[in-house]
Amino acid sequence: MKPAQRFACSVTRPMPGAQSQGRAASMQPLGTTKNKKGHHLNTPPLWETSRAQHCQAKRYSWAMKKMRLEDFLAEYAKGRRSFSAVDLDYANLMGASLRGVDLCSAGLLKADLRAADLRGARFWKAELVHADLSGADLRGADFWGANLSGAILDGAILDGAKLDGAIGVHLDGANMAGQELLAAYARGERGFYFANLMGADLSGASLSEAEFVGAKLKGAKLEGAKLERADLRGANLRGANLSRAVLRFANLSYADLTGARLDGADLTGANQDRVIR
Questions:
Q1: At residue 176, does pLDDT exceed 90?
Q2: Is the pLDDT assigned to residue 136 strictly greater than 80?
Q3: For residue 266, what are the contacts with CB-CB under 8 A and spacing of at least 6?
């Protein structure tokens, strides 16, 4: 099979002067760009382009394709994995096994993906607005540029998931490892209500003003973590290591600190109303 036959879509890239000529005129197929004399230029193939160009090209070269749910599942069962720009709005995929599926630029508005196996799936620039991903296995899934506004991730497993550039991410109730939480915090996320972070290593992490209401932090490593003004109301911190943690003005009311280590922790101004010890 020739390299050019590996990809079904017509990949495009902007040409010089695109801003003045308009979007439609600015896009030319890769490998067919010509100079002023009409000679073909040696443009890079798809596998050498960035994923940004890849998805942008697919958006302009493909119209959104409506696909029946039964056809989608049948094609996947036959071994097909690429379903770029397919329209699966409102699809019921609860519990579906879709490991490694490519849904770049796909429409998944209000799709039901509860408890679905989506390990290693690719959702570049997919529309997942108000989709329900509760309990879904999203380990290693890539959501670069995806729109997750209003999406439900309660109980979803996000170990190794890539959320860089994703829009509207809310990780309330999600199952996360320490690295995923820190990456989300760095992007500006602060709400981690009821998140499952049992045993997570957050030693020395800067998590000021983070909201861990009802979060499961049993056995978490928070040694030296900076948690000024963090909201830990009702959080399960049983057996957590909070040695030398900075908890100034944090809200620990109703938190369960049974067996937690607090030696050297700074609790100045912290709300410890009805803390369980």
A1: no
A2: yes
A3: 244, 245, 246, 247, 248
Query: What is the Cα–Cα distance from 150 to 170, expressed in whole angstroms?
Result: 8
- Stated pTM of the model: 0.61
Cβ neighbours of residue 13 under 8 Å, at least 6 residues apart? 27, 28, 30, 33, 43, 49, 53, 57
189 within some domain: yes
* Same domain as 116, residue 209: no
* Structure confidence at residue 154 (pLDDT): 87
CA atoms within 13 A on the CB side of 214: 8
Q: Which residue has the higher pLDDT, 230 or 14?
A: 230
3-state secondary structure of 52: helix
Domain-located, residue 257: yes
Residue 206 forms part of a structural domain: yes
* Whether pLDDT at 46 is above 60: no
161 assigned to some structural domain: no
pLDDT at 12 over 90: no
* DSSP three-state, residue 129: coil
CATH at residue 118: 2.160.20.80
Q: In terms of residue numbers, what domain contains 209? A: 171-277
Place of tokens 């799709």: 111
Q: Which residues contact 237 (CB under 8 A, 6 or more apart)?
A: 217, 218, 220, 255, 256, 257, 260
- Indicate the Cα dihedral angle 230, 233, 237, 238, nearest 10°: 160
**Count of beta carbons in the 10 Å neighbourhood of residue 222:** 28
- Arithmetic mean of pLDDT, 118-140: 95
